[in-house]
Write a structure and sequence with these properties.
Elements: E1 2-4, H1 20-32, E2 40-43, E3 48-50, E4 54-57, E5 65-69, E6 72-74, E7 89-94, E8 99-102, E9 106-108, H2 112-115, E10 125-130, E11 133-138, E12 141-143, E13 150-153, E14 156-161, E15 164-166, E16 177-180, E17 183-193, E18 199-201, E19 205-215, E20 221-226, E21 232-246, E22 250-256, E23 261-277, E24 279-284, E25 302-315, E26 320-325, E27 332-344, E28 352-356, E29 358-365
Parallel strand pairs: 1-2, 2-5, 3-6, 4-7, 5-8, 6-9, 7-10, 8-11, 9-12, 10-13, 11-14, 12-15, 13-16, 14-17, 15-17, 16-18, 17-19, 18-20, 19-21, 20-22, 21-23, 22-24, 23-25, 24-26, 25-27, 26-28, 27-29
């Protein structure tokens, strides 16, 4: 049996600008239904609803829930329309297992009115999955979040695909997808056009796969930032494959704060296409979010076992296409760069690499890499660049009930970092 939001509308709702109560009533019916009762809710293509911040809380009776959004759901247009109660999110699914949230609809948060009037730490996220398991989120378009569009926080086994996330290039801190305290997260076949990181992978996260994502504008696909305020942060087993960075400020980036602790390891960026990306490859162990800060106690988040492989395309920056700015005391170990062919989008610009305190193994890299310390360059003779490994077009949609790949590797010791998204 399939429920419809229209089943929960009263006569007065047809002229009401706030349909929040109907959504809460629908969730209560859906979440409380037994396996042989209604387990599906639909918002039809010709329907538009405005709702205030909502918490859809579990656990639910069934572990087989389906919400299909083919219409449009909107937040209040003006900030004051959200009410006086401060909320960290617009829509939050909490402690829900086995939810499929899909469709061809639109979630519009009208974030433009927040960007200029409310400082970033007081703005809400658009969609949050908190302490959820076995989630599939597929097909939806999200527009103009006040802050990050999607947060995956303390979740296990989520598949996010065929999404389009849209915000202007100059919209502040409008990350596409932020991941923290989560594992077995799979993101693929999506377009992310925002004003900050397309995807940011934060502390205590592992087994993350990102495939066929078109990123840009934005700040690339980032590990971190990690270690803010001396926090203990760990990230490992991250694979980014067959992705495109178009007009992004950065590309493949790892960023850690001075004074932090923990590690980022077993990271792979492979088969990456660059279209006028400003800084295509970055490891920055001196990240300070635009400010100045000093190392605390000589510690740093350890970065090791990182591979950048089969990069091709153009860089719009003026000089350093590759930046490996590692910590003097900790350094970066086993940084492998293979088959990197980056050219400047300006014919008169000669691209360079900046590298310090990193152990680098480079093969067939179009830009010469020399480090101040810990440098190791594989003594291979120059050769023509081979063809890149074949990649799959990002536009091919998977089925909504696609199952995520098998998890990889064993989890690290869990730590709980300072919860900060940037």
């Amino acid at each position: 049996m399939t429920l419809s939001i229209r089943d929960f509308l009263s006569d007065s709702d047809h002229t009401n600008v706030d349909h929040s109560q109907a959504f809460q009533d629908a969730w209560k019916a859906l979440c409380g239904a037994k396996e042989n009762e209604a387990n599906s809710l639909v918002i039809h293509a010709n329907e538009t609803y405005t709702i205030l911040p909502q918490l859809f809380q579990g656990p639910c009776v069934s572990r087989n829930l389906h919400i299909q959004i083919d219409g449009k759901i909107e937040a209040p247009t003006m900030v004051k329309g959200w009410g006086s109660k401060k909320s960290e999110y617009w829509l939050c699914f909490e402690k829900v297992t086995g939810l499929v949230l899909n469709g061809s609809g639109v979630l519009n948060t009208h974030g433009g009115n927040w960007w200029s009037s409310v400082e970033v730490y007081s703005r809400p996220e658009a969609v949050r999955f908190f302490a959820c398991n076995d989630i599939i989120y597929n097909g939806i378009t999200q527009m103009d979040s006040p802050k990050n569009h999607i947060s995956v926080l303390n979740c296990v086994n989520a598949t996010i695909s065929n999404l389009r996330l849209i915000a202007p290039a100059n919209s502040p801190n409008t990350d596409g997808i932020d991941i923290c305290l989560s594992h077995n997260i799979h993101i693929f076949d999506s377009s992310i056009e925002t004003g900050d990181d397309c995807v940011a992978i934060n502390g205590s996260s592992y087994d993350i796969n990102i495939t066929r994502v078109a990123c840009g504008p934005g700040h690339g696909i980032s590990i971190g930032s990690l270690g803010k305020g001396g926090a203990m942060d760990t990230v490992q087993n991250v694979n980014v494959r067959d992705c495109t960075f178009s007009g992004t400020a950065n590309g493949a980036r790892i960023k850690t704060w001075p004074g932090g602790r923990g590690f980022a390891k077993n990271i792979l960026y492979e088969n990456i296409t660059l279209i006028n990306a400003k800084f295509p490859i970055i490891i920055d162990q001196h990240y300070c979010d635009g400010g100045s800060c000093k190392p605390a106690g000589g510690t740093a988040v350890k970065v090791s076992d990182v591979t950048f492989k089969y990069f091709k395309g153009t860089c719009s920056g003026e000089s350093d296409a590759i930046k490996l700015d590692c910590d003097k005391n900790v350094g970066c170990d086993n940084i492998v760069m293979e088959h990197i062919n980056i050219t400047s989008s300006s014919p008169k610009t000669l691209l360079h690499a900046f590298c310090q305190f990193a152990h680098v193994i480079s093969r067939f890299v179009s830009i010469d890499i020399k480090c101040d310390a810990h440098d190791h360059k594989d003594p291979q003779p120059p050769s023509p660049f081979p063809a890149l490994a074949p990649s799959t077009p990002y536009a091919k949609p998977p089925s909504p009930d696609a199952q995520p790949p098998t998890p990889i590797a064993q989890p690290p010791l869990f730590s709980f970092p300072f919860l900060y998204f940037d």
